[in-house]
Amino acid sequence: MSEKVVLVGAGGHAGVVVDILRLQPGSEFELVGFTDTNLELAGSEIYGLPVLGNDDILAELFAGGVRCGLVTVGAVRVNPVREKLYEILIGLGFELINAVHPASVIAGNVVFGRGNTVMAGVLINPGAVVNENVIINTGAVVEHDCHVGSHVHIGPGARIGGGVRIGEGAVIGMGATVLPSLRVGRRAMIGAGAVVVRDVPPAATVVGVPGQVVKCAGD
Question: Which CATH superfamily does the domain covering 98-209 fall into?
Fold first, then answer.
């Protein structure tokens, strides 16, 4: 019997996630639909799936036998929202599934947590650890022995060098590069196309080539 799955968040990259789940061969998942905070979407259909209501119905869905979920909110600006939705699902008892595109390449000994989304063209090399509720977007590279904290968003085409540690909730922008063995602090923001050449403090914003800190927490 297939596991019933609710997807939380009908906007952003939700369609990409639906496509990934449908592409997985022999999938044991039945996608029952979305929840979304936009009440105007309730009763509509998106990507061939119904919008069942807002997030308040998650407990009801769980009680009705939907035991798996995945956060499908993807925009960088709502990264904290993703974390909150993840915590709601976990608190209600949902099992979080992973959505891994079959055109990604993931080494056999990569350690994976729950609720992660890995898109087409991603490469994750040996020894990497990917915690929970992480997005690794199209064509990104996570090199060997990296540690990616929970709730991190790695943008399309980003390059993470070997041995890098990315703190919880950080965002690595589209096409950014983080040189090997560096540390990116929790909730830091690396701008699109930036090249990180030194450790990044927590909650800092880094832009440019070479990357420069332009904002820190409290500024």
Answer: Hexapeptide repeat proteins (2.160.10.10)
